[in-house]
């Protein structure tokens, strides 16, 4: 009996060990488990049972132990990924720390130089005041400052037509570039808003008190130096304003480097200035520490060298020593120093545009940071960190963006060697019409003639530029993107899309506000910092009768939008689009049109005009409004920007004049619409002003918030929420962050109510965004019971002003049911006590 008890005890102990926490697996068992883990890291209970049955070597292991093995394996994988991520962050921080220490050393040198210059100037002033009693000391001071601002380098007279002379110019260019990149040759001032960090774009600085304009950037990328150099040398792939870059001669040097003689043309950003060209020498070499250097400068009469090719209608600009310093990082990756220094011949542009050509900030945004962003984008795509929809490769989507920008730039500049020529005007110089009768050259050789009218035709461009005052560019472009119906004409869009079809649509008569259908924006791609994104816009034509085939069909636009974030550092705000067909092939024909808004440096002359002015002085509307003396928002005060509009259309030869009339009138209508919108969203109009009402248009967000709260108080005799401040901005913020979902929808006869506004809780409840909100109708959100209740209570709402709705269920845009305990509906009235919209508040909502 005792022997049996001992045997039972030993058996229980053995079973306990088998079911314990630790089991020693053989290599064959581990290999079998790893194969299953590669296919399914988290197998179900039935899958684990099946594994034991199918794999004899695992027969002696309990299912619970296999479950524990997979749990441990997932934990180890998670720890490995986290350790790898931390190692990557640590490498970035180490490299950034090194970069910041170098920057600190450079700043200390700059401080020492400034202290020395300050002492020298004090000595000069003291000497001048002690030796003379006239005003000659002033001339001494000004002379010294002028010499510091515009240093003149005396170049020796080399025979730059032979390799030895070119090498001497290249070596001097290298020395001057390095003194700017890592030394104190230029007084650099860090740009506001650029903060260094492992995930930031880098350190960006602009010049102060130097000849021309200069910008400098330092950053980290996870690419090898040779790959970075290859990307940066291909300037047309990332510099959107580069029209062409031709390498006319290549001279190898004895130290393993190369000297290239290059000719580059750049687009003008607006129709009001001429394009620029550069004749430069580019030197590529390696330093003793293994760093790669690509430096470049213009060849002029003072530097010597061969004479560049002539170009008509272009202004020859000068590139002062600039370039790229690329050093490898420990653990992989590269540290990049970029310097751009140019003299754009500012006196050749109209005075209103000179701040643009004198702005180092604009150069930094348009050229310097563009290079750094492009390299970082390629690095992220190479690492697989960027995922795009639509089944397109990142390189293909990048090509679409480049083609949209290039096509728009071609239309704005209208180079004669591309086939563009000007048409006569109708007596008013506000809109310029240019035609291109050689579209095969314009579109490129990969387009065939079947895409264009068989009996002759071409491309027509209507373009105009205007000056905006007190209108934030980001806000205006965002409005143009989200509210296409405020400026676009559906018939004109249909005509533009007809160039993709065999039978073109008849030339329409442009008419304002002829856009009865809705738009749906489908995102395609965006850059790392979301400063630019590519999307497809579907314009729905269901509002037209089926017998009008051309208008009843949906249309598609490929659209590129940038600069819509007011807090981001961007060169300009831009909205460029081109009609595409449903197939949307990689080599699809693109004929871009759109808007570009370039901010100018704020003026300090104290002008208080808030008008939208056309530069031709023929489209002034309204009277200038003076900003009240009590307003304290001076950040947007006297903010000026240049808006450029360009629309392109194909035409058949026998309809060319008709298309020109339509295009000119359409652009004028668009200009008037933009002026109306600009006046409505100008910051100076945010306060409630007495006097005549503005031109009719959608109310501002602050005004709408005030109407919502005031109407709720008048109808219900209670407050929607406790108002902490009476200012419009405070009311909007409280409304936006309110915990209950607040939505507004339109009140239209014989039309389904469409949502026009929602606070953050409302957007979360509908699972949508402000852009897509207008595509949601009220009938689709409420369930059948809710629609019946609203139909019964609607007359009460319109007579009494409000109504309580019982608890119910609504549906989000993702078809998820949402429950709410109670809802209140009330009509929102404007300042004239006219019905503006219908508002709802859904209380204590939650997803079912």
Automatic annotation (TrEMBL):
Subcellular location: Nucleus
Record key words, sorted: Coiled coil, Differentiation, DNA-binding, Homeobox, Nucleus, Transcription, Transcription regulation
SUPFAM superfamilies: Bet v1-like (SSF55961), Homeodomain-like (SSF46689)
Highest rank taxon of the organism: Eukaryota
DNA-binding region listed in the record: 26-81
Ranges where the START domain occurs: 159-360
Domain Homeobox: 24-80
GO biological process: cell differentiation
Pfam families: Homeodomain (PF00046), MEKHLA (PF08670), START (PF01852)
Keyword Coiled coil appears in the UniProt entry: yes
GO molecular function: DNA binding; DNA-binding transcription factor activity; lipid binding
CDD domains for this protein: bZIP, homeodomain, START_ArGLABRA2_like
Any one cellular-component term (Gene Ontology): nucleus
Record InterPro entries: HD, HD-Zip_III, Homeodomain-like_sf, MEKHLA, START-like_dom_sf, START_lipid-bd_dom
The keyword Transcription regulation is assigned to this record: yes
Family from the record: Belongs to the HD-ZIP homeobox family. Class III subfamily.
Protein name listed in UniProt: Homeobox-leucine zipper protein HOX32
Source species: Cajanus cajan
């Amino acid at each position: 009996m005792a022997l049996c008890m001992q045997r039972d005890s030993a058996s229980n102990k053995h079973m306990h060990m088998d079911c314990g926490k630790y089991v020693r697996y053989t290599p064959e068992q581990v290999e079998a488990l790893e194969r299953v883990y590669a296919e399914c890291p988290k197998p179900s209970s039935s899958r684990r049972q099946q594994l034991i049955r199918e794999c004899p070597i695992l027969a002696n292991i309990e299912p619970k132990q296999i479950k524990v093995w997979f749990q441990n394996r997932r934990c180890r994988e998670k720890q490995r990924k986290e350790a790898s991520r931390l190692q990557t962050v640590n490498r970035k921080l180490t490299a950034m720390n090194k970069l910041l220490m170098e920057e600190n050393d450079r700043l200390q040198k700059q401080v020492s130089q400034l202290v020395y210059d300050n002492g020298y100037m004090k000595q000069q002033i003291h000497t001048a005041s002690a030796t003379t009693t006239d005003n000659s000391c002033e001339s001494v001071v000004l002379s010294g400052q002028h010499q510091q601002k515009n240093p003149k380098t005396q170049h020796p007279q080399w025979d730059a037509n032979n390799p030895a002379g070119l090498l001497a110019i290249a070596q001097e260019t290298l020395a001057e570039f390095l003194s700017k990149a890592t030394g104190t040759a230029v007084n650099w001032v860090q740009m506001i808003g650029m903060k260094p960090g492992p995930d930031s774009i880098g350190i960006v600085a602009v010049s102060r008190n130097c000849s021309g304009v200069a910008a400098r950037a330092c950053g980290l990328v996870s690419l090898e130096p040779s790959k970075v150099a290859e990307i940066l040398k291909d300037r047309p792939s990332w510099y959107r304003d580069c029209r062409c870059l031709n390498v006319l001669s290549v001279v190898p040097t004895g130290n393993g480097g190369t000297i290239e003689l290059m000719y580059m043309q750049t687009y003008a950003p607006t129709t009001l200035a001429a394009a620029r060209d550069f004749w430069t020498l580019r030197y590529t070499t390696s330093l003793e520490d293994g760093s790669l250097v690509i430096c470049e400068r213009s060849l002029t009469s003072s530097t010597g060298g061969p004479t560049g090719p002539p170009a008509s209608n272009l202004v020859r600009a000068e590139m002062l020593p600039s370039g790229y310093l690329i050093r490898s990082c420990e653990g992989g990756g590269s540290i990049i120093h970029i310097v751009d220094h140019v003299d754009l011949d500012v006196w050749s542009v109209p005075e209103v545009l000179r701040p643009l050509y004198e702005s180092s900030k604009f150069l930094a945004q348009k050229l310097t940071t563009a290079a750094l962003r492009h390299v970082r984008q390629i690095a992220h795509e190479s690492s697989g960190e960027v995922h795009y929809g639509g089944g397109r490769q990142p390189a293909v989507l990048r090509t679409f963006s480049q083609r949209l920008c290039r096509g728009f730039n071609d239309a704005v500049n209208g180079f004669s060697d591309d086939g563009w020529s000007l048409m006569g005007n109708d007596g008013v110089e506000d809109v310029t019409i240019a035609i291109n009768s050689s579209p095969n050259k314009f579109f490129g050789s990969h387009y065939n003639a079947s895409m264009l009218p068989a009996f002759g035709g071409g491309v027509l461009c209507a373009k105009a530029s205007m000056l905006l005052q007190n209108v934030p560019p980001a806000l205006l472009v965002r409005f143009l993107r989200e509210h296409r119906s405020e400026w676009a004409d559906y018939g004109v869009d249909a005509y533009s899309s007809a160039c993709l079809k065999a039978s073109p649509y008849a030339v329409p008569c442009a008419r304002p506000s002829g856009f009865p259908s809705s738009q749906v924006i489908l995102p395609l791609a965006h850059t790392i910092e979301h400063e630019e994104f590519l999307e497809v816009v579907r314009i729905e034509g269901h509002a037209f009768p089926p017998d009008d085939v051309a208008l009843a069909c949906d249309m598609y636009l490929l659209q590129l939008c940038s600069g819509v974030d007011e807090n981001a550092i961007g060169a300009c705000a831009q909205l460029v689009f081109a009609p595409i067909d449903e197939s949307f092939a990689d080599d699809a024909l693109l004929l871009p049109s759109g808007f570009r808004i370039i901010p100018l440096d704020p003026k300090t002359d104290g002008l208080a005009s808030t008008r939208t002015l056309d530069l031709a002085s023929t489209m002034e509307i309204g009277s200038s409004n003076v900003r009240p003396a009590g307003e304290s928002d001076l950040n947007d005060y006297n903010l000026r920007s240049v808006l450029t509009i360009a629309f392109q259309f194909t035409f058949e030869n026998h309809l060319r004049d008709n298309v020109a009339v339509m295009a000119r009138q359409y652009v004028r209508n668009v200009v008037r619409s933009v002026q109306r919108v600009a006046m409505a969203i100008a910051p100076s109009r945010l306060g409630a002003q007495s006097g005549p009402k503005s031109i009719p248009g959608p109310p501002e967000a602050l005004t709408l918030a005030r109407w919502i709260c005031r109407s709720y108080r008048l109808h219900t005799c209670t407050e929607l929420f406790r108002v902490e401040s009476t200012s419009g901005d405070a009311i909007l913020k409280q409304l936006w962050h309110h915990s209950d979902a607040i939505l507004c929808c339109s009140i239209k006869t014989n039309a389904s109510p469409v949502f026009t506004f929602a606070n953050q809780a409302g957007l979360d409840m509908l699972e949508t965004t402000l852009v897509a909100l207008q595509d949601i109708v009220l009938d689709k959100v409420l369930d059948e019971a809710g629609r019946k209740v609203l139909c019964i209570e609607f007359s009460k709402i319109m007579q009494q002003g409000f109504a309580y709705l019982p608890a119910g269920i609504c549906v989000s845009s993702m078809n998820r049911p949402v429950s709410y305990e109670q809802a209140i509906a009330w009509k929102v009235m404007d300042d004239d006590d006219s019905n503006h919209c219908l508002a709802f508040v859904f209380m204590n909502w939650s997803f079912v």
